[in-house]
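Appendix B. Chain record.
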Amino acid sequence: MPQLRKDPVTSRWVIVQSERPLGPDDFKIEQQSRSSRACPFCPGNESMTPPEIVSYGRKGAQKPGAGPWQVRVVPNKFPALRIEESLDKMALGVYDRIGGFGAHEVIIESPEHDREIADQPLEQVVTLLRVYRDRCLDLRKDPRFKYVLIFKNFGAQAGASQEHPHSQLIALPVVPSRVMGEVKGSQKHFEHTDRCIFCDMMDQERAEHRLAVYENERFIAIEPFASRFPYETWILPREHQSTFELTPEEHLTDLADALKTALYKIKTLLHNPPYNFMIHSLPIHGREEDSFHWQIEIIPQLTEVSGFELGTGFYINPTPPERAAEALRRVPRP
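Structure tokens predicted for this chain:
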């Protein structure tokens, strides 16, 4: 029978279909053909991108153009927001408008054109996460920024315009409403219980063993109880942490292991689907350190959003998260 499930953080409702649930082989994955165009992100083509902001070699950050790179950060050639724009606010009757100020960067994840995170050596994924962290720390120094979002689009169906493995960063002068929903929902739970809702979710999972996909000493990958999408996967620090960019250096290897393993399991089980992931962290000036818990959300693009979802804010998930977790657990780690 179908179930209505309520997200314990945002109070968002999801319809989970348990009759004739869809399994991993029931989704149609369109494999995109390889482009014959020169890749602007490959080594030797550095002149095809805007001048780099920073690059990292095997020993860490290095000056732009200093030599062979492992991860490279450049401004987006077609930015959604620009650092040169003003932050002027204006009221237009009942409407509000702010100048198009912000930062939009591309993080080229590896020199290798055809090797995604799931198949990268662990050390390369650690370097990538270090770049994510360092760029967030650098941008939060600017008091005009209120939020920095790291996200990745893999595959044309997920919004990727380049084949070469890359992520993006957008720094915003406002906090996104979706993040604020998580912050407020977490704070509400904390006010009633004096506990973090995400920590409570992990405590319940340790007792029930129904939704976990993979865990190591410091991180856990789970299918959310009210998953919006089939095989939606979250990665959370097992110890309470509110801010991604404050992740200690000694934790990055375990985080890289959890991210690489989760993506490898999704790739293997679902035949390399397009996906998005994003890192939701506490807003830069947030004061909810005790109630908010940062997380990486991985969303395989297997279904389409229709009029019902757009009209109600409800999502319909054709794969119960317990079944998704069980299938993903069976996939060996890389």
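Further analysis of this model is presented in Appendix C.
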